[in-house]
Structure formats: C-alpha cells, structure tokens
Amino acid sequence: MILSEMRTLVRRDLHDEDAANYRWSNDEIDRHIAHALSDFSEAIPVQQKATIATVADSREIDISAVTDRIRVDAVEYPINHFPHRYQRYSLWSDIVTILGDEIPDGSNCYIYYSKLHTLDASTSTIPARHEDLVTIGACGYAAIEWAAYSVNRVNVGGKFTPADFIAWGKERLYQFKAELKRLSQNNKVTMHSLYRPYYSSFSRTTDFGP
Questions:
Q1: Rounded to an integer, what is the distance from CA 97 to the centroid of its chain?
Q2: What average pLDDT does the segment 57-63 reach?
Q3: What are the DSSP E strand ranges found in the chain?
Q4: In this structure, are residues 98 and 89 in contact, taking their beta carbons and an 8 Å threshold?
Q5: pLDDT exceeds 50 at position 26
Q6: Which fold has domain 46-115?
Q7: Average pLDDT over residues 24-29
Q8: Rounded Cα distance, 74 and 85, in Å
Q9: Phi and psi at residue 136, to the nearest 5°
Q10: Residue 16: is its pLDDT beyond 50?
Q11: pLDDT band at 191 (very low <50, low <70, confident <90, very high)
C-alpha cells in the first residue's frame, strides 16, 4: 500500500470522500499519517544491517550514513565469525565507539539498527497486516485535530460536533496505542540481548561499595 492508497482509506474511515468539499486537505491527511507512522516505527521498527568500514587503530566508527535511525541494536566486529562477535559499545551522535578488547584494523563491521518505516508515493515498508493499524492511528489524530480546530466555530451540529469528533478520535487512538503496546511487547527479543551491555545493571537491594 502506497501513500495515496492509505490516504484514501483514511478519508473513507473519516467519511471525508467528497472531493469538492474535503474537510481535510491532502497535506493534512499526510501529516496525520506521518504521525501515526512515526508511532508505529517506534514500536515496530524496520530492522536493518549496515556494512561500514572501520578506521585502522581507531575505536570510533562513523555511522552518519545510517539514516532514519531510531537506535543501534548491536555492533559486530570482526565479522564472518561464528558465533558472531558482538562488541560492547557507546554511541554519541553519529559515532559508535567500540569498548571491548578488539581494536579495529580497517576491515568492515556490521551495524545492526532499527529505522523508521517508509511510506511514500511509490514504496512502503509497513507490513500488510499492520496497514489498517496505521490507518486507525491517522484517523484518530485527524479527528482530534479537527475537533480542536472547530471549537467556537459555527457548525451544523449532529455527529460532526467537536465533542463527537474528539470522543471518536480518542477511541481510535486508544485502540491504536494499545495495539502498539502489545506488538512492542511481542517484539522485545532483539540482538542487543545477545551480548553483555557495557553498563552494569543497578541493584535496588545490594550495596556493592565504592
């Protein structure tokens, strides 16, 4: 499903299909779709692996070419070993610093990361089974935006009053975010569980001393 197709579904659910008298412009609909897509990406991101050359005798790896990044999940160096050699690392801006015993020699490393989903005029990375969910989120944001806009404005009453819009929008957003939470919980097993983190966990019951 590309952007224009999702826009059509959002308008259908909002009962805004009269092209001569749209309640929301295409730009406004697209903005609400983008908002829902961002929320969806945070819960269920696209999982990617980038191959990046290291710099000999430097622990720092520049990952500025890794765009639309939500987070770095793992750093593998050296590569092509089994079991895989995942490194402890720190991240500051676009620089990953390897903190383990390995000092890069200029060979490649693998950066495993999560990124934003894409939805545009020709492509989409949203799994087909979740397209309706993103549509629900976009509808919720659109309804609440219209409710805020129409407060203290003349309207004809009935089902399209601000109170009805905001109640309908909140119901859709509740459904949307509850499902995102469920999906996120089901998606918690990721690569960063395969190696020991650099920072130790803190105990609430034990004092380890200075």
A1: 24
A2: 97
A3: 46-53, 60-62, 69-76, 89-92, 95-98, 108-115
A4: yes
A5: yes
A6: Elongation Factor Tu (Ef-tu); domain 3 (2.40.30)
A7: 95
A8: 10
A9: -60, -45
A10: yes
A11: very low
Averaged confidence pLDDT in the chain? 86
b/e 79-100 (16+ beta carbons within 10 angstroms → b): eeeeebbbbbbeeeeeebbbeb
Answer whether residue 195 shows pLDDT above 50.
no
| Residue tagged 């050699």 (tokens) | 85
φ/ψ of residue 83, rounded to 5: -65, 160
- Within 8 A by CB and 6+ apart from 117, the residues are 37, 40, 41, 45, 46, 124, 125, 126
What pLDDT band is residue 192 in, cutting at 50, 70 and 90?
very low
- CA angle (177, 184, 82) in 5-degree steps: 165
Torsion 185-191-196-198 (CA) sign: negative
User: Residue 81: CB partners within 8 Å, gap ≥ 6?
Assistant: none
- pLDDT reported for residue 194: 43
CA–CA separation, 27 and 201 (whole Å): 46
